[in-house]
TrEMBL record, chain A:
It catalyses: a quinone + NADH + 5 H(+)(in) = a quinol + NAD(+) + 4 H(+)(out). Keywords: Cell membrane, Membrane, NAD, Quinone, Transmembrane, Transmembrane helix. GO terms for molecular function: NADH dehydrogenase (ubiquinone) activity; quinone binding. This is NADH-quinone oxidoreductase subunit J. It comes from Tectimicrobiota bacterium.
From TrEMBL, chain B:
This is NADH-quinone oxidoreductase subunit H. NDH-1 is composed of 14 different subunits. Subunits NuoA, H, J, K, L, M, N constitute the membrane sector of the complex. One of its GO terms (cellular component) is plasma membrane. It is found in: Cell membrane; Membrane. Belongs to the complex I subunit 1 family. Pfam families: NADHdh. Keywords: Cell membrane, Membrane, NAD, Oxidoreductase, Quinone, Translocase, Transmembrane, Transmembrane helix, Ubiquinone. HAMAP family: NDH1_NuoH. It catalyses: a quinone + NADH + 5 H(+)(in) = a quinol + NAD(+) + 4 H(+)(out). It comes from Tectimicrobiota bacterium. Its EC number is 7.1.1.-. It is a multi-pass membrane protein. The keyword Cytoplasm does not apply. GO terms for molecular function: NADH dehydrogenase activity; oxidoreductase activity, acting on NAD(P)H, quinone or similar compound as acceptor; quinone binding.
Length: 169, 337
């Protein structure tokens, strides 16, 4: 049962991801991206990671993509559909794709060869995975967490500085 | 998961869905009645006793109106938008606890929770759904291919994002006190004292942001009639228009139920006095009814904000205040425990 749903959601995610890059209408692309996020969130639920699923929908589908649509609103769609598509980064894309494929293959090979070496999943149910997620974030992964926070702060200040330059002029 | 569990859950889903539809229908009547009395009129009183059958007449009228799909719209998205709006507004009830576990006067072998699903991320689930509701409005505005609709959609996306932040941050205070994202736990925690007394600042931010989230006056800029005809739903007619209408009222009901659950003890009775012999479900319904009335009251009392005022208020006042609330709550928790 669970496997059936996994394949259903995985297929949905892959198909809608392909539609993101193949549709000409940018609004449709953005909406298929939202659909992709939903399928990924569904897979998180199957893995009993409800917190990640909710945050996936809330942050990516609910906040970031709404800002995307905000920008797309100001685009004249029929005109964009007439622009000839170019594909100049072919070599770079191929190299990066190959690298990603190798990485996935390496990880898959590692887990298949020694499934016992996987860290045990945090116990879910009684405690709830939000708590275990929080504890892990503030103990084992404290340093990366702080680094990301500083990075976000820097990006925020950068955005303000860039916007302010426009206002002052 | 026994047969009984499935049966009970299906009945719960049916009853709650039906009840919400009923509330939505009669909220339209209540809106007209309350506005009437605020403006020294009587409101609808021709269809049935006291106009009580008015919502049914309205529903029939809307269903039999001509359904026009304009020529130049993006058809798929145009049809999808009202559906997204409605689903997002109605699905949120699944996690709101209406009362303590009950066995329905011995009808069932063991008590069942008066809630469709007690998921441990209840609050995030509701926020995720309400952020999906934005898409209904935004896409309606975009796909209609009409300048007024587009402006309504643009305003809506900016407004909702801005106020969702304050809404989310104001709830963080409650979460810090209850230590759980499950709404059942939050309600059980308020048996002694409602959170509104411990989180007054958080509650004020929450309720004002709630008005902005549901597009109600004084924050109904996405459909401001004098400027934008009807905003995002200008091009919608018949039942598709009424789906937007219904989802606005359903969203009001959700946010009222959230306010009651998070700050006013959910189905708990008065602090210190208990339920006074009144069933907990009625406590819940009564409190929600008060908030629904508040929504109507405010709409017919306050004028609309200007768009720049709305944005300034959201980003320069409510967001810093909600961050301050988190800080104060943390300080209080550390010093008092």
């Amino acid at each position: 049962m669970e496997q059936f749903f996994f394949f259903l959601f995985a297929a949905g995610a892959v198909i809608s991801a392909l539609l993101v890059i193949s549709r000409r209408n940018v609004m449709h692309c953005a909406l298929f991206l939202v659909l992709t996020f939903f399928f990924v969130a569904a897979i998180f639920v199957l893995l009993k990671a409800e917190f990640l699923a909710a945050v996936q929908v809330l942050v990516y589908a609910g906040a970031i993509m709404v800002l995307f649509t905000f920008v797309i609103f100001l685009v004249h769609i029929p005109r964009t559909e007439k622009i000839r598509q170019t594909f100049r980064q072919k070599n770079l894309a191929l190299a990066l794709g190959l690298l990603l494929g190798l990485e996935v293959a390496y990880i898959l090979y590692g887990t298949m060869a020694a499934p016992a070496s996987l860290p045990a999943a945090a116990p879910v149910g009684a405690v709830g995975n939000t708590e275990s997620f929080g504890v892990a974030l503030f103990t084992r992964f404290l340093f990366p967490f702080e680094v990301v926070s500083v990075l976000l702060l820097a990006a925020m200040i950068g955005a303000i500085v860039l916007a302010k330059k426009e206002i002052d002029r | 998961m026994s047969v009984l569990w499935w049966l009970v859950t299906l009945v719960k889903v049916g009853v709650i869905f039906g009840a919400v539809l009923g509330v939505v229908a009669y909220m339209t009547l209540a809106e007209r009645k309350v506005s009437g009395h605020i403006q020294l009129r009587l409101g609808p009183n021709r269809v049935g006793p006291f106009g009580l059958l008015q919502p049914i007449a309205d529903g029939l009228k809307l269903m039999f109106k001509e359904d026009i799909i304009p020529d130049h719209v993006d058809k798929v998205i145009y049809l999808l938008a009202p559906a997204i709006s409605t689903v997002a507004a109605f699905a949120a009830y699944a996690v709101i606890p209406l009362g303590p576990p009950t066995d329905f006067f011995g009808l069932l072998p063991e008590p069942v929770p008066l809630q469709i699903a007690d998921v441990n991320i209840g609050i995030l689930y509701i926020f995720a759904l309400s952020s999906m509701g934005v898409y209904g409005i935004v896409l309606a505005g975009w796909s209609s291919n009409n300048k007024y609709s587009l402006l309504g959609g643009l305003r809506s996306s900016a407004q909702m994002i801005s106020y969702e932040l304050s809404l989310g941050m104001s709830v963080v205070g409650v979460l810090m006190m209850s230590g759980s994202l499950s709404l059942t736990r939050v309600v059980e925690d308020q048996a002694g004292l409602w959170y509104v007394f411990l989180q007054p600042l958080g509650f004020i931010i929450f309720i004002i942001a709630a008005f902005a989230e549901t597009n109600r006056l004084p924050f109904d800029l996405p459909e401001a009639e004098p400027e934008l005809v009807a905003g995002y739903h200008t091009e919608y007619s018949s039942m598709k228009f009424s789906l937007f209408f219904m989802s606005e009222y359903a969203a009001m009901f959700t946010i009222s139920a959230m306010a009651v659950t998070l700050y006013f003890g959910g189905w708990q009775g008065l602090p210190g006095l208990g339920t006074l012999g009144i069933p907990p479900v009625l406590w819940f319904v009564g409190k929600v009814a008060f908030f629904l009335f508040l929504f109507l009251w405010v709409r017919w009392t306050l004028p609309r904000f200007r768009y720049d005022q709305l944005m300034n208020l959201g980003w320069k006042v409510f967001l810093p205040l909600s961050l301050l609330n988190v800080l104060l709550t943390g300080l209080g928790l550390v010093l008092l425990r």
